Amino acid sequence: MSERLDKQTERLDQVERRVSAVEDGQTALASGQLKVNTELDTLKHKMDDLKSRSRRNNLRILVQEYRDTEDTRTSGHIRAKMQEFQETALSEVRHMGKYAVARAYGKGDRPGKALANLIHPSRSTNLINKTIAADGSILIDPEDIAARFREYYQTLYTTRGNPKPNAIKEYLTHIELQKLSESDRAALGAPFTLGKIAKELGSMAEVFEVLMGHITWFNRVQLVFGKANFLKYLSTF
Fold this sequence. Notes:
Layout: H1 2-69, H2 75-106, H3 111-119, E1 131-132, E2 138-139, H4 142-154, H5 165-173, H6 182-189, H7 194-203, H8 205-211, H9 216-225, H10 227-235
Antiparallel strand pairs: 1-2
Helix pairs in contact: 9-10
């Protein structure tokens, strides 16, 4: 019995020693893994730092190249000039606004004159910028324009052509004009008579009928004689 107990005790001791060895190995392995993780983190930080340094270095190179090659065509220079122009224009507008307000206050209770002064620049001008010469060319010089107007008005009322009777008669012979017959000439030269006037009025009875509502004299005649009697009277001539 005692021998069996001794053997069992020895086996338990061996098992405990093996378990202890395994635990020691696990502890060593865990510490080694932690060390490896720490080293990996350190390497990662170093890589990130190197990348950051590289980017900053590249940026410095680009900035230096931009400074070395900068000229008046770069976008930065153009933006600066545009900003300068906008500030100048805004300052000019503000100055004009203050000047306009000062002029308005200077007029006191006379707003009409202030408005007249404000709209004065928008009025049309009588200045002639250009004109056309006799040969068809365009004149833009003020002296040439003045000379052209002087020439025009000097010749405006000047007699042109040949005023001789023979030349006028020769010119008219080539134009076909309506000629009067002998009867037309006799009628034009004959004196007016009451019978002739009545005859002409009788031939115009229809015209008088159309115009009767618009002529005051005929309206009065209709009231006295009647429309039918008046037309009948005219048709007897």
